[in-house]
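Postdoc handover notes: sequence design on the structure in folder B. Input tokens:
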């Protein structure tokens, strides 16, 4: 029980720091679904479940995760297979639940701000290096 609680707190801590990186955390956890070590597979499913709830509206990402979890429902370890099945149910319910226009606008605004921040950083890098190159000549 202590390990489960620690995994939960760890995953929630990562998401609390930066919810926009949920998709990245999911992709990283996907690798561990293939692990020969049962505790790693179980921890990966838990992290996927936590992060997957933040992928509302991102159907491609969610479908990839659901496909991986479906394979795990036949795991040799009954605890891992049951957890994968429960996680699939929660993720599908989250995705199928209708969400308000305010939630949709919030998600779109969050994505737009994330892209804008990345473009601004890229612009600084490009303009900074271009100015340095021109000054060096």
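Designed sequence:
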């Amino acid at each position: 029980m202590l390990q489960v609680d620690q995994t939960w707190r760890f995953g929630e801590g990562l998401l609390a720091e930066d919810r926009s990186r949920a998709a990245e955390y999911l992709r990283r956890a996907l690798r561990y679904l293939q692990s020969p070590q049962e505790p790693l597979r179980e921890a990966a499913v838990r992290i996927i479940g936590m992060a997957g709830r933040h992928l509302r509206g991102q159907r491609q990402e969610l479908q990839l995760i659901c496909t991986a979890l479906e394979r795990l429902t036949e795991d040799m370890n009954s605890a891992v297979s049951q957890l994968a099945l429960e996680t699939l149910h929660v993720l599908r319910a989250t995705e199928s639940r209708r969400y308000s226009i305010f939630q949709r606008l919030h998600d779109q605004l969050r994505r737009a701000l994330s892209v804008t921040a990345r473009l601004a950083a890229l612009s600084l890098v490009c303009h900074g290096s271009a100015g340095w190159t021109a000054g060096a000549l």
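Context for whoever picks this up: Residues 132-137 have pLDDT under 50 and may be disordered. Don't rerun without checking with the PI first.
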